[in-house]
Design goal:
CATH topology of one domain: Rossmann fold
Shape: globular
CATH architecture of one domain: 3-Layer(aba) Sandwich
Radius of gyration: 18 Å
Length: 249
């Protein structure tokens, strides 16, 4: 099967720090892939390179066979890759619905304008529908500044769905969520993104989340891929246990 994402030989260095070391990876359509690794292992650097926020020093990135290396984040998003952020990128003075409306307007072909009423109701309705998927419709008119961190995370993820991406990348979707709520939150995320994003890559530190929701796990260490495969296999790997999950056996 032709991969939706194919990277070959990605290198990235920040001075003496190796953030990506000859990374090579294919992700087929429909997989849910979790990227794991200690802080600084290279997971977010990989996501930033794939989404255009960071240029690799060497290597290639292809989406459905199209070379997307060196393109801007906006252009990459237009081609079909969307992402959420570890720290939600929201306008805190706007409401939840208004944030989504801005994202919907930005995804269109027309120039942004808050002065034009044309299509305003349609954009608002789409915003509320996306919030409803995440169980947040009742918060549509609440300012972001009044909402909890976990709710902000969900709104940030909902904004990433506006373009109906071929590939969705989520940076720590359950960070800041309590242990009691983490499974319910991830259930909500997986259910909500399913209609628009069949291929999902998520960075995660919680191995219970990884084991429950990922079809495949890619473990990073010092900018390279330490292990890649089914969760049960990767999470038992001796090097992964030593360098990533903290096990000793």
């Amino acid at each position: 099967m032709k991969p939706v994402l194919s990277v070959r030989g990605l290198d990235k260095r920040f001075g003496a720090v190796v953030a990506a070391d000859a990374l090579t990876l294919d992700i087929p359509v429909g997989q849910k892939v979790s990227l794991i690794g200690a802080n600084g292992a290279g997971k977010t650097t990989f996501v930033n390179m794939v989404t255009g926020y960071l240029a690799p020093d060497k290597g290639s990135i292809a989406l459905d066979g199209l070379d997307i290396g060196g393109r801007s984040p906006r252009n990459v998003a237009k081609l079909g890759i969307s992402r959420s952020f570890q720290i939600p990128q929201l306008f805190i003075e706007l409401t939840a619905a208004e944030n989504l409306t801005v994202a919907i307007s930005g995804a269109g072909t027309r120039a942004l304008s808050f002065q034009s009423p044309a299509g305003a109701q349609e954009r608002h309705d789409k915003a509320v529908e996306l919030l409803r998927r995440f169980g947040l419709a009742d918060l549509a008119d609440r300012p972001i500044s009044e909402l909890a961190g976990g709710v902000r995370k969900l709104i940030d993820i909902s904004m990433a769905l506006v373009r109906r991406p071929k590939l969705l990348l989520l940076d720590e979707p359950t960070s800041g969520v309590s242990a009691e709520e983490k499974f319910a939150t991830m259930d909500r995320v997986i259910h909500a993104v399913a209609p628009d994003a069949s291929t999902v890559v998520f960075v995660e530190h919680d191995m219970e989340i990884v084991n429950r929701y990922a079809d495949r796990v890619v473990a990073f260490y010092q900018g390279r891929i330490l292990a890649d495969g089914e969760p049960a296999h990767v999470l038992k790997d001796k090097e992964v246990r030593r360098y990533v999950t903290g096990g000793t056996q």
